[in-house]
Design goal:
Layout lengths: L6 H23 L3 E6 L2 H4 L1 H16 L3 E6 L2 H10 L6 E2 L2 E2 L3 H25 L4 E5 L6 E5 L16 E6 L2 H8 L3 E5 L1 E3 L5 E3 L2 H11 L4 E6 L14 E3 H10 L6 H13 L4 E6 L5 H7 L6 E4 L7
Helix pairs in contact: 3-5, 4-5, 7-9, 8-9
């Protein structure tokens, strides 16, 4: 046995402890679905994109079943600008006429989706890209303004999730594929609808009986009135943050889609900082985790 105990022997021991720490989580989550909404810097910064793809490949190798739903707002806006078409938003929702819908589908399905798939596959995963229209995965209806934060104008082809048909996801997982989903829904007559990626991911996590719903964002998590990170919230506490005005702007729809997932039976929802390298692994496989978890009730265990 080596008698020396210098810095060169500490690092391997620490790495071994980290692997041992992950063991109960691997055991607990193996075979379970985890829905991940990919957005923000984790989609745009090359180093973070690589970290994300590595995380997805690793958790799939250990038996966890990731399902990725991605956004693409900045990319849509950039192409619309190149085409000379102005982007118009009402309370954060993109007004989507038929021409804009063509661009939305082109960017989300034809560009962003394929980039995410290629990134995961390059690092050893087995990803396949689909949209919500494929296999009627996401059946959509036209969004009603009254249900969207009291809006009073027509947003065009902005949709809401009507129902989820899980057969396509079941089939892909049966053959070992990682679904990567563009949030475009199929409305009556197969008309495409632009669905908010957070909302689509929350609805999918509930309908697919996911063990976790994870939102990757560009903020540390949910903050309190003094701008301190809240590590854990119950469903009621999270709803109170909205009612009291502590949660505002972009955090409100994120909390709402987490609450929707919880009401649909998902045990835990998480809002985590995708700017942190390997954020997914830190959240899923470590004791401390990162960001904010929201639970239906006080969690008795893992």
């Amino acid at each position: 046995m080596n008698e020396h105990c210098d810095s060169t022997s500490v690092a391997p021991a620490m790495r071994a402890e980290i692997l041992v720490e992950a063991l109960p989580y691997i055991r607990s989550f193996s075979g379970k679905r985890i829905v991940i909404k990919l957005g923000g810097s984790a989609m745009t910064r090359e180093s973070l994109k690589k970290n994300f793809a590595e995380d997805i490949a690793l958790i799939s190798f250990i038996g966890i079943k990731p399902i990725i739903v991605h956004g693409g707002g900045p990319q849509i806006g950039a192409l619309l600008k190149k085409l000379g078409k102005e982007s118009r938003f009402v309370k954060g929702l993109r007004v989507t006429d038929e021409e804009t819908m063509d661009v939305v589908e082109m960017v989300l399905v034809g560009k962003v989706n394929k980039d995410v798939v290629s990134m995961v596959n390059h690092l050893g995963g087995k990803a396949v890209g689909i949209s919500g229209r494929d296999g009627s995965l996401i059946k959509a209806r036209k969004a009603q303004p009254a249900r969207l934060a009291g809006l009073d104008e027509d947003l065009g082809l902005v949709g809401e999730v009507d129902r989820i048909n899980p057969e396509l996801i079941d089939s892909l997982e049966e053959h070992g594929f990682i679904p990567v989903i563009a949030p475009v829904g199929a409305g009556p007559g197969e008309k495409p609808y632009n669905i908010n990626a957070d909302t689509a991911a929350g609805a999918l996590s509930a309908s697919l009986s996911a063990e976790k719903f994870i939102l990757l964002t560009d903020v540390p998590g949910v903050m309190d009135a003094d701008n301190n990170l809240i590590s854990s919230l119950t469903e009621d506490q999270a709803a109170e943050l909205i009612r009291s005005g502590v949660a505002s702007e972009g955090m409100i729809p994120k909390i709402r889609c987490c609450l929707s997932a919880l009401r649909g039976g998902v045990p835990k929802a998480h809002v985590i900082d995708g700017r942190v390298p390997h954020a997914l692994l830190l959240e899923i496989l470590t004791d401390q985790g990162i960001g904010t978890q929201i639970v239906r009730e006080k969690d008795p265990g893992l």
